[in-house]
């Protein structure tokens, strides 16, 4: 910071500027009429070696109503650089600057109003442009580009003059291969001179639905070309971006409670271990809330033949977006009364229950994104379903043997798909997962293999 008394001559010099110097003895005592009588200069880019050599000038922009700007000069300054300063507009920013003069003997402080001028290094031509007048506007409509043809002609001329024999030979060959306007005219005439003008009918191949690969109506849609387990199933199967944006705030508010409060409210004890830090991935809260609602819904419908409307909305106290998504995915249709005395209900068959259960297991595997592991016993206990059924659905989803597991348990041959094998875990893994039987997703599900029994083999040999 450099502080000097603002004492300048009121008479303008020949170049429309006034001198401001730290040497007060060489400056007249007349001062410019101003609210502030002190000025503080801040040199941003460098520090003055000798403050007494600094000479400050005030300039007025030519042909402009803008205020003044200042320059600082030294004896050792380069001719290409100018220290240009502008006054800080403290009134607009809602603050003001002052100099505190403290008497060391008495300890009293006197505050003097001042102005702050910040100096920066600018090129000399920019400084001259400010003195001479406003900058000219750039005309962006001018085309300064070079045509591709003219650039190619210049390159070919340079190759012809300075290129080697090999480059010249290659250039001559490329010139011979060029298609000129005369060649195009001859080609156009020969095309339109053709006598064959009859349009032949094009056969449109119709896709036959019987030949298409069948898709399961129970399992979630899988990416059969996935290279890693994390790419087999996507979260878009369960919630769209619009549904996530509508549900995210409610889900975060619901799961922000303590573990004890969530369990007392009926939240799944198994899912409490999946919550983690929701600030890193807020979308995870939406899927956890949806999975908890799906688990509660499966407990209701697992041993029923009908889903009553009153029971559905009474037992499932979740946001409307979650309930609408469950109805849309697993129980399409409307609640219908058989007669005037009956309650509105939806019939439920085994396919609806298996579809809900498979999606619950799939979302449970996806939320365990790092390991893609499904512990069999805890999920069977949480859902109230047999472990064999959980095993078969995990097999159909694309799970198989985990490498950290050593004693292999063979699945029953009645399973429809053999891409999964459930195994016994080690002691540490069993304590962490709460089970000794786990299934791990390693890839897309494989189609079931056809197995021929003894009777079919005997019939084939007889024929």
Give the tags.
alpha+beta, RNA_pol-assoc_fac_A49-like, 15 helices, 3 domains, nucleus, 463 residues, single chain
Explain how this protein is built.
- InterPro entries: RNA_pol-assoc_fac_A49-like.
- Pfam families: RNA_pol_I_A49 (PF06870).
- It contains 15 helices and 15 strands.
- Helix 11 packs across helix 13 (387-397).
- Strands 1, 2, 3, 4, 5, 6, 7 and 8 form an 8-stranded mixed beta sheet that branches.
- Strand 4 and strand 5 form a beta hairpin.
- It has 463 residues and is an alpha+beta fold.
- It has helices at 90-93, 124-132, 148-162, 165-176, 181-192, 241-255, 259-264, 283-301, 309-315, 320-330, 350-367, 376-383, 387-397, 427-433, 454-462, and strands spanning 2-5, 17-21, 38-43, 55-60, 68-73, 81-87, 97-102, 109-123, 306-308, 345-347, 373-375, 399-400, 407-408, 423-424, 437-441.
- The protein folds into 3 domains: 2-132, no CATH class; 233-369, no CATH class; 372-463, no CATH class.
């Amino acid at each position: 910071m450099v502080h000097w008394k603002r004492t300048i001559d009121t008479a303008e010099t020949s170049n429309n500027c006034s001198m401001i110097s730290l040497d007060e003895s060489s400056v007249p005592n007349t001062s410019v009429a101003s609210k502030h009588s002190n000025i503080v200069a801040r040199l941003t880019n460098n520090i003055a070696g000798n403050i007494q050599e600094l000479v400050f000038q005030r300039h007025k922009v030519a042909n402009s109503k803008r205020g003044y700007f200042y320059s600082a000069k030294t004896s050792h300054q380069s001719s290409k650089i100018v220290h240009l300063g502008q006054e800080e507009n403290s009134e607009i920013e809602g603050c003001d600057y002052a100099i505190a003069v403290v008497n060391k003997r008495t300890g009293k402080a006197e505050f003097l109003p001042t102005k702050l001028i910040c100096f920066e290094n600018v090129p000399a031509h920019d400084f001259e442009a400010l003195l001479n007048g406003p900058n000219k506007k750039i005309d962006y409509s001018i085309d300064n580009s070079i045509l591709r043809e003219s650039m190619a002609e210049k390159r070919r001329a340079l190759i012809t003059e300075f290129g080697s024999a090999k480059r010249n030979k290659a250039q001559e060959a490329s010139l011979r291969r060029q298609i000129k306007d005369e060649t195009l005219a001859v080609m156009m005439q020969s095309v339109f001179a053709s006598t064959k003008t009859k349009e032949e009918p094009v056969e449109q191949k119709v896709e036959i639905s019987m030949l298409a690969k069948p898709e399961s109506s129970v399992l979630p849609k899988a990416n059969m070309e996935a290279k890693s387990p994390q790419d087999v199933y996507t979260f878009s199967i369960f919630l769209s971006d619009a549904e996530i944006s509508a549900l995210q705030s409610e889900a975060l508010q619901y799961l922000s409670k303590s573990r004890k409060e969530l369990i007392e409210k009926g939240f799944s004890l198994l899912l409490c271990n999946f919550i983690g830090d929701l600030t890193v991935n807020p979308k995870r809260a939406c899927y956890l809330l949806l999975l908890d609602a799906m688990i509660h819904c499966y407990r209701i419908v697992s041993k029923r033949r009908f889903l009553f409307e009153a029971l559905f909305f009474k037992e499932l106290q979740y946001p409307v977006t979650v309930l609408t998504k469950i109805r849309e995915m697993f129980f399409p249709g409307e609640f219908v009364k058989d007669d005037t005395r009956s309650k509105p209900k939806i019939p439920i068959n085994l396919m609806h229950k298996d579809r809900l259960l498979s999606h619950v297991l799939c979302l449970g595997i996806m939320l365990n994104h790092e390991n893609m592991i499904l512990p069999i016993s805890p999920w069977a206990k949480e859902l109230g379903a047999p472990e064999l059924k959980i095993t078969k659905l995990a097999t159909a989803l694309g799970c198989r043997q985990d490498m950290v597991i050593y004693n292999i348990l063979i699945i029953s041959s009645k399973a429809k798909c053999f891409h999964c094998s459930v195994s016994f875990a080690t002691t540490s893994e069993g304590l962490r997962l709460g089970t000794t039987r786990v299934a791990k997703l390693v890839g897309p599900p494989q189609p079931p293999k056809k197995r021929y029994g003894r009777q079919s083999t005997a019939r084939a040999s007889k024929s």
